[in-house]
Design goal:
By secondary structure, this protein is mainly alpha-helical. It is 73% helix and 0% strand.
Amino acid sequence: MKQFAVWAFVFGQIFAVQASAQTALFNTTAVTSACSRSAAACDPVVDAQITALKSAGLDETAINEQLALLAAAVIEAIQSASPRVAAAYAAVLERLAGNSTDAIQAAAIRAIGLQVAQGNVPTVSAVAESLGPISDN
């Protein structure tokens, strides 16, 4: 149960951006394609997208929103990876976390990176489905 609570918090932090209907300002096709192939292919593509976002004149909040979407794209791309292969993606997630200026977001991405490093690939849809609608009560 404790692990579920941690995952719920982590995914809530990272994917909250998606709930506010943010549009990716990076090349999602390039990220998904590269990250579906290997961590070695994913790393330079994600790095290039981070550089492009930082060069686009976006404020910190907008960059952090895009970093969340980038993290989501990477996690989605590695869903079918074996634990051994997935572990190599931890460095990509750490780079994303290191570029966030939001401490909570960075910690959430790092937490997922640590799980991925141990070969535990989170299932995005299962966690999102389990959370259901969030009430203000």
